[in-house]
Amino acid sequence: MAPADPTRQGGTTIEVVKPGLVTTVQDQGRQGFYHLGIPPAGAMDQLSFRAANLLLGNEETAAVLECALMGPELRFSAPTRVAVTGAAMTPTVDGEPRSGNTVIEVGAGQTLGFGFATAGARAYVAVEGGIDVPEVLGSRSTYGLGGLGGHEGRALKAGDVLRTGSSVGAGGVADVGRELPESLRMPLGKERELRMIPGLYDYRVVPESLKRFLTETWTVGSEADRVGYRLKGGTPLEFVDREPPFGAGDDPSNITDACYPIGSIQVPSGKEPIILHRDAVSGGGYMMVGTVISADMDVIGQLPPNTKVTFTEVTLDEALQARADRAAHLERLRTAW
Amino acid sequence: MPSRYTLGGDEHLFVEVSESMSLDAFFTSILVTKELADRAIPGVTEICPANASYQVRFDPDVISVADLRAELEEIEAGIGDHDATLETRVIEFPVYYGDPWTHETLMRFRDRHQDPDSTDLEFAARANGYADVEQFIEAHSATPWFVSMVGFVAGLPFMYQMVERSKQIQVPKYLRPRTDTPRLTVGYGGCFSCIYSVRGAGGYQMFGITPVPIYDPEQQPAHLRDFMIFFKPGDIVKFRPVDRAEYDAIVEAVDRNEYQLPTAPVTFSLKEFEADPAAYPTTILEALDGTR
Fold it and tell me: Where does the record place the Carboxyltransferase domain (chain A) (predicted)?
């Protein structure tokens, strides 16, 4: 572990040369405001986000940059250690390839860039000390629909200037070359199984139709962002006949507008399911067939468009076991160094 | 009918009080969630009342769903025991009905509307049996509304009209949602009115616009100094039609931080409303006298 270096006290500036596709400041997210329409926000793949900080020696929840599919170009004003986790997007320094999942250094005046994502969807870029933006409602995360948090409430643009903070962990910034063990990296596949618990308004669907929904293979559509993931390619749902309840609306998929759980799977007009994620719209008038379990939400953040997805029904006990397994994985990350 | 409890994965308990909208169902939702919040139960992280349902997010490592459900069932059973009242506030919102900005927007999206040759106001007036738009605006603005849910996006209120069901306005949503809606548009879909807190997509009919901001992360206007979001579930809203001159004057007053939003504390009694749904809302609105 490197001794504390008095020249490294945060306040390095990072100039956004190119913003990438969608690059936002994110952390663990906020809670307690969903009843007012403010969703959690925060890194979609929380495991890779935390791994980036722990690998680098930052505090576990220091703010990072979440980079979707095509990374930014960032020029640093002073030597800065950096770690990139999550999607396979090879980091480059002044164009020279460096290793992902490894602590690297970007020199004064040098530019950090990225190759295209060859697997996964979102890279997490931790910089020593974290990204220094103001906390809003307990988090530095960007909530784009509400223009709140992060850097000016929005994705980065060319010309933006960020500063590094002082959220370094007790052990100090890690040495260059420290690597994230393979076993602690998020698996990035072209096919994924998502475990879900049926419920909410699944009774609106004819049983055979729901059974088919759970056996079909779906394809991640191009509308796959922080609000939600739209899936295509399956058979439309068949609804149970009814007299529309007062206030619900005429479409068989309408409900009296209600709250949407994070991870819930809504199916507007029975056609293309949408899985809500951390920037979720907090409520609305579409029925939901169930909810992806908490342990599989990180996985969704790493699904690029065209990934094949299947749903697997699990019980609450199975969901809680998966949750415990994820907590154990996180604990191994915390004690890896 | 008892409430229906259903899991939203391993972290949410979703409770549907009623499939259909009613003031009664909303009242149960708001009273149960208020009591749950007061109990400050460890592990409960988000308490979200909605129109005729509510949702609780929890940490299953701290509280089991069975324990949480037992708590909620006990609370709901207790609510029937007393005369349900709600301590809340009544607020008067100026609305410029038929304004040029929502008009320009609705003209851009006529191809997504069920009646492309009418404006949204003309369509809604006809669908609810009013002779003209003026009478419809009178119906929309004469009686108060309950904020029955805040959400979709940050700070957007869903509002339910405090009248007998036979007089309740109902308007279908657009056939396909618009990709644009002006900020602060007063909209309508199904049996709910709303105010769009931010510019963006939307499927509700557009009736007008309010000059008073309801969401500002910078918290500039005086009425957003305490918190960036104005509305809370349970608020009571009265719309007041204004013309272009008054709209402009209020916009300027808001910009100078001199606009006072008429607001008064009030106690709402469901039993008194149900006993006389025609007259009781008028007594609620009396609280606003002297606030303008």
Answer: 35-329
- Same domain, yes or no, for A126 and A146? yes
What residues in A contact B215, CB-CB < 8 Å? 146
* Shared-domain flag, residues A24 and A120: yes
CA dihedral A187, A188, A191, A192 (to 10 degrees): 50
Under 8 Å between Cβ of B37 and B47: yes
Domain shared by B8 and B138, yes or no: no
Answer yes or no: do A91 and A159 share one domain: yes
Please report, for the domain that includes residue A226, its CATH number.
2.40.100.10
Residues A68-94: tens digit of each pLDDT = 999 999 999 999 999 999 999 999 999
pLDDT digits (tens, 9 = 90+) for A11-32: 899 999 999 999 999 999 999 9
Cα distance between residue A161 and residue A243, in whole Å: 56
In this structure, the answer to whether residues B106 and B50 fall within a common structural domain is: no
A49 domain-assigned: yes
Rounded CA-CA distance A117/A109 in Å is 25
CB contact under 8 A, B154 and A320: no
Q: Which residue of A has its CA nearest to B53?
A: A258
User: Are residues A250 and A141 both part of a single domain?
Assistant: no
Test B57 with A292 for CB contact under 8 angstroms. Answer: no
**Do B165 and B275 share a domain, yes or no?**
yes
Domain extent for A20: 13-184
Residue in A closest to B229 by C-alpha? A36
Specify the pLDDT at position B176: 85
Residues of chain A with C-beta less than 8 angstroms from the C-beta of B43: none
Whole-structure pTM value: 0.95
pLDDT band at residue A175, thresholds of 50, 70 and 90? Answer: very high
Domain finish residue from A136, A166, A184: A184
Q: How many CB atoms lie within 10 A of CB A39?
A: 29
B41: contact with A, CB 8 A cutoff: no
Predicted local distance difference test score (pLDDT) of residue A305: 96
The Cα-based distances of B145 to B21, B159, B161, B247 in angstroms read: 14, 6, 4, 21
| Inter-chain CB proximity A282 and B45 less than 8 Å | no
